[in-house]
Amino acid sequence: MKTHTDKSTLVEELLADIENFKIAHNCDRLVMVWWGSTEIYHEAQEVHSSLAKFEEGLRTNDPDIAPSMMYAYAALKSGVPFAMGAPNLCLDIPALEELALLTNTPIAGKDFKTGQTLMKTIVAPGLRARALGVRGWFSINILGNRDGLVLDVPENFKTKEVSKGNVLDGILNGEQNPELWGDIHHKVRIEYYPPLGDNKEGWDNIDIFGWMGYQMQIKINFLCRDSILAAPIVLDLALFLDLAKRAELAGIQEWLSFYWKAPQTLPELEPIHDLFKQLEKLENTLRYLMGEELITNLGMDYYQNVEEDASY
Ligand SMILES: NC(=O)c1ccc[n+]([C@@H]2O[C@H](COP(=O)([O-])OP(=O)(O)OC[C@H]3O[C@@H](n4cnc5c(N)ncnc54)[C@H](O)[C@@H]3O)[C@@H](O)[C@H]2O)c1
What we know:
The chain is an alpha/beta fold and 312 residues long. It folds into two domains: 7-112 and 229-290, NAD(P)-binding Rossmann-like Domain (Rossmann fold, 3-Layer(aba) Sandwich), CATH 3.40.50; 116-225, Dihydrodipicolinate Reductase, domain 2. Helices cover 44% and strands 17% of the residues. It contains twelve helices and eight strands. The strands form two sheets. Strands 1-2-3-8 form a four-stranded parallel beta sheet, sandwiched between helices. Strands 5-4-6-7 form a four-stranded mixed beta sheet. α1 crosses α3. The mean pLDDT is 94. Bound molecules: nicotinamide-adenine-dinucleotide (NAD). Nicotinamide-adenine-dinucleotide binds at residues 35-38, 67, 85-86, 111-112, 114, 145-147, 226-227, 229-230.
């Protein structure tokens, strides 16, 4: 536990922690995956707008520099790839993106996609594929661990709500098809219920409509366990961010969107939320890095060969 209140000193201590960890564990390379509590809601401010202003903010103890930003700063300053597992603003600021590029360090975030949002990004692409209309999607999560306790505080919940909120818009695009998806009532709730402990229960009620506007409903009750769903993501991210660093990929790693509720992209790009598109992007990027052919699922070569073989 760090006791200083001065942000520059805290960052100095984090830089020393990183260096000491590397020496103590005889590591050649490190990756930092941040998985601490959800912070109160922050919006990007002037102090986040450039690296110079951020460093000035550290010196003047600017209250808009959140703890997770200091961890990210220390990691990136040390050239250590950094991932943001919580829904915090953290990496989504120009100052840290600038530092990542300056030190040739990969970054990825944010908010692990593990429970209800994972289900959402599995089901919604199916509804889209079959052109089923959606009138409403009500999601409620009941959880009993400390994450639930922290999210019971409105300022912290707001951070999570924003991170979860954009997922459907990206998949069921109301602008492309206003008749089917132009007016979706999307509501997300999280309730802290201590008896569940680290178990989590997600309830989804989806109001859909089909041919001739016929109304139907889907109910999903996902009984899951938070840590079991999140731990493999942490391991994958450690390996892939280390790979990214070795492959000299710096800055935002959009190909890792597969793991996130709110994937980080360049400001002018729309994030991809559809789990299957994210998986294809992940697999193709790995193939690209290995110099292998990309997956297109076209399959024409195979049939052409069969026809050629048959003609002999
Ligand atoms: N399935 C999952 O576990 C999952 C999925 C998606 C997102 N998340 C997010 O990951 C975060 C952590 O979730 P959790 O269930 O592990 O919570 P948790 O309460 O079990 O653990 C959080 C830890 O962070 C520590 N912490 C808080 N502030 C810190 C700080 N400033 N510096 C260092 N450590 C600090 C706490 O002491 C605690 O040990 C939350 O934001 C949560 O919403 C978790």
